[in-house]
Amino acid sequence: MSNLSSHKSIDMRGKTITPYILYHADQQLGYMKEGEVLEISTDNFEAIENDFRAWSRMTGNGIVDLESGNDYQRYYIKKSGIKQNEKKLAMTISDASLEKLIAPLGLAVSAALSGTDVYIYFQGPAVRVLKKNFRSKLSGLGRPFSSFARKGMEKVGHVPPQDKLNQLKELGAHFYICGGSMQPFGVKKKDLIFDDINIAEYFTFLEIMDSADTTIYLN
User: pTM value?
Assistant: First the structure.
């Protein structure tokens, strides 16, 4: 047992998706003062530890202690007032199917939690993701099993795409929608999930990509 006292604690056992865990950690840290310690309990899972260490290096929030057991780990995170990572990510998403949204939105949330300024351009069928009350489904033959897939994913921390959009919004991400794709895929301006989504086409986002440190294009 650690001798370090914490100011706040959260229990994330049962969740193995690090962006989910660190999103809730980030919310708690937002209420804390610099130098205070947050205790986070997770499953004993190698991927979580590697991600925590990378996030710590990027944000400056230090892992000041780590307690391990057979089926758990406890991280003691010291809040830092220094934001070390000030980069820009430009991402283009073109597919609205459930399995194709997992990686890009997870990466976007992770980037935003690490202090990166995130810009996302939705084009083609993916413009539907920005509609109010959108629910993603598996593609092809897997479509009838979408509800089972969603439940399984949410259990470990893969929240629905629109929940991730709300997380990204809270973290300061910027959203762009392809104006030329809206009418063909049944999306009207009044249907959009946020009022400040930028309606544009390629040149607007090319300008953003030109100044980005990292660009990701996903079909």
Answer: 0.92
